[in-house]
Specification:
155 residues; single chain; elongated; mainly alpha
Length: 155
């Protein structure tokens, strides 16, 4: 057994803060300089995105609970989840965050929030997902490497 304490993947901030900051920045910019998305039917897509995001989060939380491992990225993992949603995407929660942001943009018709969505994806990839992948590779070795080859990061 290793003598060092497992501190998880080393993510230094709660990942939900990324889309929250993007959304709030978009709201602030909308007041300063309106960038309206004036295509009414897009609000239906936005509502579908918001519903999908809620469902992804709910199913992901259930998977973590069923596998008795922490959902918090600053805590150690005790299980590798590869079933359910995790057969389709390695990051359903982060996908949900992106859908939440895009859905909010479409429902509120706020172009700024939509424009910040790629920034959210880049930050999640670089500052969260890559750290988690390195951590999980070290923790689960070949089993995780095989999983990486079978399931895409996003979709």
């Amino acid at each position: 057994m290793s003598k060092h304490k497992d501190h998880g993947p080393g993510v230094r901030f709660p990942p939900p803060i990324v889309p929250v900051i993007s959304i709030l920045t978009g709201v602030g910019l909308q007041y300063a300089y309106s960038l309206l998305i004036s295509v009414p039917f897009l609000t239906l897509f936005g509502a579908a995105f918001l519903f999908s995001a809620a469902l992804l989060i709910l199913l992901s939380v259930m998977a973590f609970y069923q596998n008795k491992t922490s959902i918090l990225p600053h805590r150690p993992d005790s299980a590798l989840i590869t079933s359910g949603l995790y057969k389709i995407t390695r990051n359903p929660i982060y996908l949900a965050f992106v859908l939440l942001q895009a859905g909010t943009a479409l429902v509120t018709q706020n172009g700024w929030i939509l424009m910040f969505t790629p920034v959210t994806i880049i930050i999640l990839n670089e500052k969260v997902i890559k750290k988690e992948e390195a951590y999980l590779t070290g923790l689960f070795g070949t089993k995780y490497h095989e999983y990486l080859l079978q399931v895409r990061r996003w979709l």
